[in-house]
Amino acid sequence: MSTTSSTGIQVARVGDIDDGEALRVPPEATGHDDAVAVFHDAGAYYALDDTCSHGRASLSEGWIEDGEVECPLHSARFCLESGQPQCMPATTAVRAHRVEVRDGGLWLHLGPGEGAAG
Amino acid sequence: MSSRRRIAVVGAGLAAVSVCDALRAQGYDGELVLFSAESGLPYDRPPLSKDVLLGKARREDVLLRPEQWYTERLVTLREATVVRAVRPHEGGLELADGTAVDADRVVLATGGTPRALPVPGGDDPAVHVLRTWEDSVRLRERLLPGTRVAVVGAGLIGAETAAVAVARGCRVTLVDPVAVPLAGVVGDTVAGALHGRHTTEGIDVITGGVCRLEHPPGGGVVLRLAGQCRSVQADLVVVGIGIRPATGLAEAAGLHVDDGVVVGPGQHTSHPNIFAVGDVARRSGHRVRHEHWEAALRGGEAAAHGILGRPLPEPGASWFWSDRHGSRLEAVGTMADAERTVLRGTPDSGAFTVLGLRDGRLVAAAAIDRGPDIRAARRIVDRGIPVDAARLADESADLRALLKR
Predict the structure, then answer these.
(1) Which residues is B239 bridged to in the sheet?
(2) Quick one: B251 exposed, middle or buried, by C-beta within 10 A (0-12, 13-18, 19+)?
């Protein structure tokens, strides 16, 4: 369902992801080396690499609140904007990406230096 | 006392690494030295009774921190280095080779050692415990299909080990004197479902106490049960009946020790320059030592704040998890603190949550395969949000909604 374009990859429509929920976009859809979690928190959209930098959990299944996501496995929290860890046990950031809302769609722009392989 | 600032951490488990992490995060820029009795980079223990034992995780998969973490944060790891004594008056440590190490502050993170089965034959070579990487690897090599495995103790380690053994094709018997282990912590419903699952997965579950281990002429081990005619034949025995806190260094240093090194809120011991964290520490006024993973993590953070004299982080409700038979148990708080409980979901479905209430507030939660309920419950407990039992039981209402203000 993803549409690739030079101006991002459409991963969903506005309204597809409820507030406090996230969508896991598999690597096949982006050519990225990890799945990407697209988060909806209080009207804003964010995207991070889906795999927690500490364990092997999917951040798309995490708890989303106050601009942060908490890993479902060991409760490490990451800033949705920057991917920076906010508490232990995580100590390294997850890569952050940009989400653009355009024409009723959510368009993913992979973060700098981590461009799509395909 | 050294003119340079140095903090020495004795031990290299989660609590030890967490102290270092939090000290650097708080801006401590003196020396940090971690003394590990084992070789190799420090590792996380929960996988030892799960993926490591299953053969799904290698050592590099379970490291607490990658190698670069130590270089980036200037944490000196002294591997395979045994600390022989803590010298509070001289300000430092003495290593097994006699070397003296100066330190302004010492953090004891020595953990514990598995309790041996206190019965005749309890020290048999066929008896295994599970605490270290080596323990797990040694046991893993012996969990071969058809092997008769007797697991003594059906708490977290024992239950997880039994589940792994049966998944690996062993013939497993699980023995515990308590009919439904963990009931005090997670409540009867969740504990009953968890314990019952062992039987449906093909484990022979026995309620009873082992009183003697014997060697029959044909090989293997026989576990005699107190007051029962029945005995258990096994090729190997795994004992998971808790740990003894490793308080030797603390006792020799004259610290206050009483079922663990007794510590205050900032993890300080009875000596102002010595702190204790993790399984070896017992918080003053707390009846038990908190041996869970998260308690070690938070204790490490609290110690860093205590050492630096910073205000302590809010403690929050306790939390732990356990994985067995492909299901995950998670619990917040202690169900024994609740005066009534509310069920969310149906136990027959395998995935459900029990919420414990007291005075109109949530005080505990336990769930099987319902992580989102636990994430929400933990916040509801910590924030002291008033709750309504009927609303909590209503599956169509998302618990997260209670947190929206």
Answers:
(1) B152
(2) exposed
For A92-118, the pLDDT digits (tens) are: 899 999 999 999 999 999 986 443 333
Q: Which residue, chain included where needed, has tokens 């209430």?
A: B357
Q: What is the rounded distance in angstroms from the CA atom of residue B118 to the CA atom of residue B135?
A: 20
Q: What whole-number distance in Å separates Cα of residue B74 and Cα of residue B106?
A: 17
B346 contacts B353 by C-beta, under 8 angstroms: no
Q: How far, CA to CA in Å, does B137 sit from each of A85, B140, B159, B275?
A: 32, 5, 18, 32
- DSSP collapsed to 3 states, A59-85: HHHCEEECCEEECCCCCCEEECCCCCE
Q: How near does any CA of chain A get to the CA of B329, in Å?
A: 12
Search chain A and give the residue with CA nearest B322. Answer: A73
Q: Which alpha helices (H) appear in chain A, and where do they start and end? A: 27-30
What's the token pair of residue B211? 């009183």
Burial per residue of B270-289, b for 16 or more beta-carbon CB atoms within 10 angstroms, e otherwise: bbebbbbbbbbbbbeeeeeb
Residue A3 — pLDDT band, cuts 50, 70, 90? low
Residue B249 · residue B106 · CB < 8 Å? no
How many Å apart are CA B319 and CA A55, to the nearest integer? 17
Average pLDDT over residues B339-348: 95
Give the model confidence (pLDDT) of A10-60 as tens digits.
999 999 999 999 999 999 999 999 999 999 999 999 999 999 988 789 999
Q: Are B373 and B353 in contact (CB under 8 A)?
A: yes
- B257 part of contact set with chain A, CB < 8 Å: no
What's the rounded Cα separation, in Å, for the pair A43 and A67? 11
Enter the CATH code of domain A17-98.
Answer: 2.102.10.10
Instruction: Check if the beta carbon of residue B182 is closer than 8 Å to that of residue B320.
Output: no
Domains of chain B: 6-113+243-308 (3.50.50.60), 127-239 (3.50.50.60), 326-403 (3.30.390.30)
Cβ-Cβ contacts under 8 Å, A61 against chain B: 371
- Share above pLDDT 90 across residues of chain B, in percent, rounded to a whole number: 90
Angle, vertex CA A48, rays to CA A64 and CA A42, nearest 5: 35
8 A C-beta contact, residue B331 and residue B365? yes
Mutate to test the interface with B, among A19, A52, A59, A63 (most CBs of B within 10 A): A63
Does the structure show a pLDDT above 60 at A5?
A: no
The residue behind tokens 């893993």 is B140
The CA distance from A55 to the nearest CA of chain B, in Å, is 9
